[in-house]
Amino acid sequence: MKTLWSVFLCLAVFLLCPSVSQSSGRVSSCCLTTSETVLRLNLINSYYLQRKGGICPVDAVVFVTVKGIKVCANPDKMTWT
């Protein structure tokens, strides 16, 4: 009976762990560094701001291209031409 209880407990932990990590809120990719890549305006689909903190080590402006590629730029070093 003790073995059956151990198997049940291990199975319960195994099944609950993925759902706990998935339900912890919005976890998306995070910019670890920034790039100085220059993007053409017609290739940018959207952008959003990433704030330093938690798992994200840098402030960044994240540009999302029309192909879904994310390019992270340093907001303090951006020049608009």
Explain the overall architecture.
- The chain is an alpha+beta fold and 81 residues long.
- The protein has one domain: OB fold (Dihydrolipoamide Acetyltransferase, E2P).
- Helices cover 26% and strands 21% of the residues.
- It contains 1 helix and 3 strands, in the order H-E-E-E.
- It has a 3-stranded antiparallel sheet, with no helix packed on it.
- A hairpin with a 4-residue loop joins strand 2 (60-65) and strand 3.
- It is globular.
- Residues 6-24 have low confidence and may be disordered.
- Belongs to the intercrine beta (chemokine CC) family.
- It is found in: Secreted.
- Residues 1-23 form the signal peptide.
